[in-house]
């Protein structure tokens, strides 16, 4: 099934907001109903492709037939940009300036290499496309004429080694399919980002994804043991051993390369036995500060839950984690901050961790809320993007952004980003709700995930841009990284360059030039073009 | 204190082998007493430096005075090569073909940058020198005229953040000094490789070191959160957050770069509270296979000890881990395989892990040997290099090498390397003892650490080289990596290139050319020169 072209996910799962919420948005944030009706797919005015028949024929030959090169309007529109709020707002107004010339569907590593040769010959850029869930402009290259390299035909589990607990996955496998294939043999990857239902294995690797169970299973980049990369100059294969002292870790050079160095055509991952037990529960803390101190203690001294997250006061009040409860907490000034802890594993080991963690959380001032709030979180864990669609439908603006820092910088980072977003949007006449949660914890720091809801401006994308830029500046000034798990794309690129430093960026560009001398891979994504 | 110029460590700690062992070597391996007397430092014939007074004056200016540029014979000899057995054999015969022109001692990052500028101006190569403990030819560049950039003056703890549990260390800090500075504030790094007493923080990072407590504390590359790199083209700084999705992880590009990309001038590391409890104990397994299965179970399903290692039958018999017991086990055909488990942490947490791990080890067929064998291991954990000196002194040859692979490949790798070493040296007329232990474990694989003892050939280095090359070939064919924690240097470079692949190596060379366009940093180490 294809994802909704102008929103998130499965159209059948969409649900309008309850009237009470609509009223709340109107009264609290001044959200006004949209004055323009939504466009249908057929209404869109698609630019004619400039890629000629020779290029299309060569692409068809590269991928074993014309049926694997799609130039129809729907295919092209469905491969235009990703799923950030600006992406959705643009496509909803019919802006197809970033549409691909064609959608090419290779079935093998060698076909990917062949496609890249054709692209070089015909001056076409190539944009690898997995689940299409980028929220940072990762699918909108700078160069005009490009093909979307959709990897959906590369969707096999190639190998599973139960002794080493490793699996070789193709990049076009979407996460639920990967989990299903692994589950047949008793294993799981344990990677459950909010984009889980749609995102792909290759995309997880290319963008350094991190899932909601990262406290227990690690980030995706920590799960990756090997990668195969198809580049215009040939193939790179990495991963002879779990760890090595043989030079720099090339896996970590490919992870996060966002398609700019090559197309990831296979990923060797660490797998774990399917957990026998899963328990999620809620805890209440009097303040975000108190809750964060508790999370830090668990992250540093253990025992570490599998899932560990903490909403700030505003997010707890708004109850974003359970869309059906939106607004239910408003007015409860003592709601405090909701933490979710989850434990997955064997019954015995899970019980031990849960009991010990509960003692730590209690010692840190937490109050147990039982499993109901935990189960509610688990039930709604992938639903926030649907909520965003409903908010956009009623004329509200909703977007997320995220960062990470060392623990000692987290309070400053939290305050700085909140202030930047609140001040910028308030000054622009649309005072926002800014919510935040700690989404991932490490021994040495944590990530902060912000959600912003406000009224839309007249031109919603132009209205949002200064606030986003102010948040980016605040992140940099407060010592955070420009992205903890969404990636760089084109949206974060300028701040990424500042964070990384010119010389280091030049070193990465030297890698790109060696692997992609014509600059045809995702031009302008991650790295500036010449 | 300086390390012994022609051997390992503190001369005061050297001890001759007991006569019983000497007899054993003679009877078992045909070791004959050396026919040539050992050279003294004063006997060595040092090539005159070719670096002229202008270069030396400029270097002196770069580092704040002529007293920080040493050209005396002893300084130059002490910075010639590292501590592999071939290195020691060469220096013991007076081979000073790899001697530096001068030893330069910068005190700051900016002084390192200044030294690199002088090197570029005067066509001198620069070889970063930390503890001088390389065993892979990491200090023997291909280009003739070079200076040793000794980082010993950069030996401060620059910052300790007890909230984030991070510390900023200068590269010239030796591990014991680093631990002492951290201990003053209640913290430890937990990095205890065999080279602990001499190796430096910068060297750990540059060569991707891994310590004996890696099961609990992780590898050194897992401890590193940030790095500063001085290159001929300027400075690279990494590490804004524990983890990030902002592009490739540049830390992992610098880690393992072995001085070829730049000089590491500061390292931000994760630190942990000093453990209240340390317990080490021994376990006996009937076979290496059975013991390896037990280690794998702990590595994959936990609980994970802080120290976890397993000697094969031969190493257990020889008792290499406790030099004073050499030979004591010979004749005990039922010695089986000795595993060492260690637990460090709080008393309660340590007790839980120890009890649960004991249950797993028992279920896997292990027999507990108590803490005496564990304490003996801990007591002698840094002494093996002294033993090697004693063996070389009596005319034996002794060397180590190591690799890693995924668990399912470990048995094949073990057999292949043993066979390669045994066959090659036997055919050359010096049948060896080949011992092995699993030195580090991961969920998905393990490292194998081999020790070879035999009679010396007529030309000991030339005699050993074919066996070393045969082991390298066997590692590659059996799916291992050419080094798990010693690094690449010049000794492993050709096999590293084959393991990594030409295109990936070209990408790394592109990085080097961008950061070090004149190729003055460690030429030929890690990467081939043009």
From TrEMBL, chains A, B:
Entry-linked SUPFAM superfamilies: FAD-binding/transporter-associated domain-like, FAD-linked oxidases, C-terminal domain
FAD-binding PCMH-type domain segment(s): 96-274
Gene3D superfamilies listed in its UniProt record: 3.30.300.330, 3.30.465.10, 3.30.70.3450, Vanillyl-alcohol Oxidase, Chain A, domain 4
Statement: the UniProt record of this protein carries the keyword Acyltransferase: no
Alphabetized Pfam families for the sequence: FAD-oxidase_C, FAD_binding_4
Keyword tRNA processing: no
Tree of life domain: Bacteria
Keywords from the named record: FAD, Flavoprotein
Family designation: Belongs to the FAD-binding oxidoreductase/transferase type 4 family.
Record-given protein name: FAD-binding oxidoreductase
